[in-house]
Amino acid sequence: MSIDLIAAVQAAGIVGAGGAGFPTHVKLNAKADTVIINGAECEPLLRVDQQLMARKAEQLLCALDLIVDQVGAQRGVVALKTHYHQAVAALNGALPAHPRLSVHQLGGFYPAGDEQVLVCEVTGRVVPEGGIPIQVGVVVSNVETALQVYEAVTTGKPVIEKYVTLTGAVRTPMTVKVPLGITVREALAMAGGPTVSAYAVINGGPMMGRVVSPESTITKTTKGLIVIPEGHPLLVSLNKPLERTLRDAAIACMQCSLCTEVCPRANLGHRIHPHKLMRIAAYGSLCDEKETPMNAYLCCGCRLCEYACVMGLQPWKLNGNLKGILGKNGIRNNLNAKPEHPAPFRETKRYPVHKLIGQLGLRDYDVPAPLDEGLRPATRVELPLRQNVGAPAQPVVGVGDPVEAGALIACIPEGKLGANLHASIGGTVQAVTETSIVIQA
């Protein structure tokens, strides 16, 4: 079964659907004692995984059993927030048929879905600095990824569709299943389109997502599209120039350490102290021989520090800049301490999601986005060759070739980390470039 599962997952082109995009056939080719399905849906406003768990609980638990067998684990756990009531009920109802599996309920805090936080919550283990869960014997998989594994093993279906939450300033917030490769604009039209004329679109969640063009395309890692009106405080924050961030830090940072108090990595016992790193901007020096710019590598970019700061400063943006400078200079992260226990009082420092949503100015958009599984037809798709961590897929089709939905159109380059790519619609290959393949129905 293990060889068949790995081969099926690789053939299907499955990658981390939660946003990371790591090739799943590589992740599952490991040994672990625990498998965790990440159903925490880390970001505010996103609604995909909680609804999939409620509707497809039995398939998800079957997928988890398959993964547990594959990695030789003793147990599998579905971790999700307590207030996902329908999902909790559905999973608990299906659990008796799966004796090795259990459900772990989490509070409504951010970032509960950060995989290092999740591992600590479920197992009590701390992933090393700059590390990954397998280093403490754990494999973590996203809900949608696990369901794709189930489909690949049971039916041979490749990844050609994606579940996406459409929310924010749209007429009818909803969660839909769409073909890969349609444009963001086409996807938003399914929710009735934006309700404002001037807006930006965030691909992902409001905390760790990025502003994208309406003409960009849906990929294997797209989880949500949030329409935000122009001038909204969230956009002001995301678009603030680095120069202004550094100037504000120099003027206003009072070293109160609130950013460090809420930092999820610091609360795991990792050696990152955002308030100390802010001293680079404030004083031109760290003034601390135990802290160096290298510590910025331990920042997970969750942006929580900004919303804990009474001055609205952005340590996360400074850390991102430091990481970029270190990388350009060829300096790699060498921090790999292995804390045996998380930091004291970690449980008391969890940041409530409802408070965060209010600070983000998104209360009006914190509404249901009901799942509609009816697949919308598409007449044209543009499929990026890189939808995963690693190398872009290598085209195996040419202009003018006819293809059916699900046909292999690009494969993993030999000897590289990557993922296969399949046609999301039937039609004719219209263009093959260095970055994408276009199919016309």
Textual characterization of the structure:
By secondary structure, the protein is α/β, with parallel strands linked by helices. 31% of the residues lie in helices and 19% in strands. Strands 9-8-10-6-7-12 form a six-stranded mixed β-sheet. The protein has a four-stranded parallel β-sheet with strand order 3-2-1-5, sandwiched between helices. The protein has a four-stranded antiparallel β-sheet with strand order 13-19-18-15, with no helix packed on it. A hairpin with a 3-residue loop joins strand 18 and strand 19 (436-440). The longest helix has 15 residues, at 57-71.
Question: What is the CA-atom radius of gyration, in angstroms?
Answer: 22 Å
Global mean pLDDT: 95
- Per the principal axes of the C-alpha atoms, what is the gross shape? globular
**Strand-residue proportion:** 15-25%
Strand order of the largest sheet: 9-8-10-6-7-12
**Structural class by secondary-structure content:** alpha/beta
Oligomeric state of the chains in view: single chain
Count of β-strands: 19
> How does the major sheet shape up?
6 strands, mixed
Helix content: 25-40%
Distance from first to last alpha carbon:
37 Å
How many helical elements?
16
- Low-pLDDT residue intervals, each spanning 5 or more residues: none
Write a brief caption for the model.
The protein is an alpha/beta fold and 441 residues long.
What key attributes describe this structure?
441 residues, alpha/beta, 4-stranded parallel beta sheet, 19 strands, 31% helix, globular
Write the layout of secondary structure elements.
Elements: H1 2-12, H2 24-27, E1 34-39, H3 48-55, H4 57-71, E2 75-81, H5 85-94, E3 101-106, E4 109-110, H6 115-123, E5 138-142, H7 143-155, E6 161-168, E7 174-179, H8 184-189, E8 199-203, E9 210-212, E10 224-229, H9 233-239, H10 242-252, H11 258-262, H12 274-277, H13 279-283, H14 304-308, H15 315-328, E11 351-352, H16 353-360, E12 371-372, E13 380-384, E14 394-395, E15 402-403, E16 408-411, E17 421-422, E18 427-432, E19 436-440
Parallel strand pairs: 1-2, 1-5, 2-3, 6-10, 7-12
Antiparallel strand pairs: 4-11, 6-7, 8-9, 8-10, 13-19, 14-16, 15-18, 16-17, 18-19
Helix pairs in contact: 1-4, 1-7, 3-5, 4-7, 10-15
